[in-house]
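Lecture 7, part 2: worked example. A protein chain together with iron/sulfur cluster.
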Amino acid sequence: MAAEALAALVVDLQARGLRVEVPLERRIGGAGPSDSGMLWVGGFPLTVPTDNAAAADSPYALRAEDDGYAIFEGDRRLAGASTQQRPRFYDLSTADGTPYWKIGLMHLDSFASTVVQTCAYWGNDDQCRFCGIGVSLDSGRTIVKKSPEQLAEVALAAKELDGAVDATLTTGSSNGVDRGARYVARCGHAVREATALPVEVQFEPPRKLEVIDEVADLGIDSVGIHVESFDPDVLARVAPAKARTGIDQYFRAWERAVARFGEGQVSTYVILGMGEDPEITVEGCRRAIDIGVFPFVVPIRPVAGSLMADVVPPDRLYTERIYRKVAAHMAKRGMGSDIAKAGCARCQACSGLQSVQALLQIGKPPAQTSHAG
Ligand code: SF4
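Predicted complex, written out as structure tokens:
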């Protein structure tokens, strides 16, 4: 498959999802790449919706071949694919009988965990509408709080048995001045000490920005401080607590973090498809890149059980246009897509940005496919 067509397929798969006709390791519910299959398509790591309404109607299907797997559209074979095997550490349990998979999961080659599975905003008017953090807890697929020791034990098994190359730890927000940053950083520190893997921790901007220095002092490699949208109207509608924090406060937190963690080691999710103004979105990404923040641009992934479960993800042409503008500015500023040491921006499987950066000549118009929306 030609490079440009492959990039278009990667972006379109994330928009339209994949019907799965073979067993596939999936992530159901939760705060990360939820209701998604994890696979490699044409060599690119990808999380792709497999369990939402869009995926059920997707033109794309994953099928087995004599030697591996491939993506098909009807009878037409589009690209080779490989799938994630069930990680071996999932069969282990801690001494107190907790299965390792309730403590952490493999997201392709990254060990990932939500260290505190509750959020001060969950279940009230402040709940982020796209989020599913309470869903996995309700279903019994995880435990409410993981200890640093548990995480260190499981992360080591993920490295040794399944080749994890980094760890990504996130947390629900708390009402404390640190908003949960101190605890997730302690967990990250324990994982790093036990495994020597690079670690990303994710948290909301602390009320006291000095907390960011405490996180850095624990030897954490990268941080994710996620504004989710640069459009203030969208933020007010979908994430009221984040809107109250205010986009400028995110910039203040990022500046402090870049000073300690370095360029490209601070990232923010930027979710597309929530009704945002594309110009405001691109401009926000530009401003973030200019201060050294990696804008991790992703299409919305409607999570079953979230308040946006029925949202239709944006079409490929929309996301690709924004990817191109953001990628162009990153290139101009010398920020490579491989700059992050750990976390979502290192893995990149939830975004098509990397495929657009790697495969498309920036400036060329998006390729038309038969299903471009
Ligand atoms: S802050 Fe929002 S996105 Fe993060 S865990 Fe809480 S509700 Fe979910």
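Residues 3-83 form one domain. The chain has 13 helices and 14 strands. Keep this in mind for problem set question 3.
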